[in-house]
Amino acid sequence: MRTVHIEARPDHLLRLARLKDPLGAVAEMIWNALDAEACNIVVDVEVNELGGVEYVSVDDDGHGMPHASCGDYFGRLGGSWKSTAKVSPKLRRGLHGRSGQGRLQAFALGEQIRWVTTALNAVGRRERTTISGTIDSPADFTVSEPETVDDGVPTGTKVEASAPAGFAGRLTESGTRDQLTSVFAPFLTAAPDVTITYMGQALDPSTVWVHTAEYQVACPNGKVEGPPGPVLRIIEWPQDVGRALALCDSHGVVLAELPAGIQAPGYHFTAYLMWDGFSDRRDTLEIAEMDDDLAGLVNAARDALKKHFRERDRERRARLIQEWKNEDVYPYRREPSEPAEAVERQLFDEVATTVARRLPKAVQNRRTTLRLLREIVAHDPSGLYPVLDELFRLPQSEQDDLRRLLQRTSLSDIIRATTEVSARLDFIAALKQMVFDPKTSRTVKERSELHKILERETWVFGDAYALMVSDRSLDTVLQRHLQALGRHPVPEQVSPVLREDGRKGIVDLLLGRAVRGSSGREHLVVELKAPTVKVGQAEVGQIKSYAEAVVSDHQFADTGVKWDFWVISTAMDNVVRRDATAPNRPPGCIAEWEGGVRIWARTWGEIIDDCEERLYFYRERLNHDPATDHAVDYLRRVHHYAPKALT
């Protein structure tokens, strides 16, 4: 018997042992057995009456370790024979180990370790050797003298660990077998003659995985190095086994692991990138992403992963939605007929299927919850997140998934936009009824009805305008004008603004906008007339008097501000129409004064035509042609009003 000593400090050796990772130690022992060309590997874990681990063994039928080589195997740190060999000697398997440190990991299984190995010696005789080590002296291993055994004794190695540390309890946890299965899945799939048994049950990926798929991946930089080319095998598991992108040879031997590097909420998976080209680069695989050739291959594999899970997600959502339809709990009864409905449905489907696991079990409650979600998506998509959080009390991971979903290019923004366009089309239909329909227009009151509605629909006068003043005096117009310019005079310093005849003017609407690309502003004063009032000289005189009051009052003076004054009704008399169609001015403009002041007479027909022209593209894409009942519903819902003739 002799003792072999590793030249290294014990604390360094114990760091290499990774004592807190007993599952990794079992995996390393199994890989060592596979490198030794074992076809049957049995892992036993003995548990005492209190559930604590007493003993761990890993038994294989590989070629074992000849006594003459044990000194080399256990006496050196690094420099393993596997570092120069690509494949095992007889079966030509790809080799997992290469660093010569695997035996140290056995200390994660117990404080006392023993290897009992049977192998053929140089003259073809079978001999048994026992190697022992303790955690108290991790640099020293005792190697027994060889014992000759009968030819009928099979070769192989049994690793025995006793006096396990507390971390060894992880070996009996419910998910341990699945984790080991995920590690060896590609190898076991490629080598059906190999059996790995863990605590009495064989590891069989096909009985555990939820789904599996394979994809060809382009060789680095398009190089062709002979078949087989890189293959990405994706295996999905029923529970979390730890995501990874494992770099393997073509036989499924794991040579290195990288982070999966993708988001796939709700899926547990391992990805195996299998390619014999990795065998030549084993020493640098841990930093593969820094290698120009390998980085391209890894990125291509991750792109394939993303595409795979996008498709899997689409399939899962479609399956869930069909189940809801079969249960009659899905809140949509027909296919979307307009793009706006399709966008709304898309957001609903993504949100509902994301929280599907949190939906009530009872059919009626599930139906009610899904209808509630539909209403929120349709009318207040921005409020979805707090409602879902309140309803389902989502764990942090699902909260993060949902937040990413709701922030994505934002489907909710698209819904808001399409809803707004549809609402504008409904309002234009309502406005037509109010100002053109003979029965309706006679009953519409200018100040209490038309005015109150339009002060909330100022977009009809131009999308860039914002309401500054509604139904206020010229004094208020001046104050808002000065505020828009950043001036804040003391009220006592501001003189009253009067029309030429000394009266105070009451402006229906003052709108304003900043001129894009400059520091200037444009102000629009709108004088509304009831649909039954024709724009004549009196109405033109009124709007001109407002313009004169502004032009003549030095308090309004500012070269950066342009003023437009509109008087609007359904029709205008012949004289006003001649002025509005004069060839030397824009259509509708009846006067232009110095200082950037223009006065306009406009009809509702012209304004509605302008609005419909702006909305034409969206109306065609949305296929939205509102009927009278849509228009009336909009007025009732938004403005709490409907003309008597339409009720």
Automatic annotation (TrEMBL):
Keywords on record: ATP-binding, Nucleotide-binding
What Gene Ontology molecular function terms does this protein carry?
Answer: ATP binding
Instruction: State the Pfam families in the record.
Output: HATPase_c_3
Q: Which SUPFAM superfamilies match?
A: ATPase domain of HSP90 chaperone/DNA topoisomerase II/histidine kinase
Keyword Nucleotide-binding part of the UniProt annotation: yes
- The ranges of region (Disordered) come to 134-157
InterPro entries xrefs: HATPase_C_sf
Say if the entry is tagged with keyword Transcription regulation: no
What is this protein called in UniProt?
Answer: ATP-binding protein
- In its UniProt entry, the species of origin is given as Actinomadura graeca
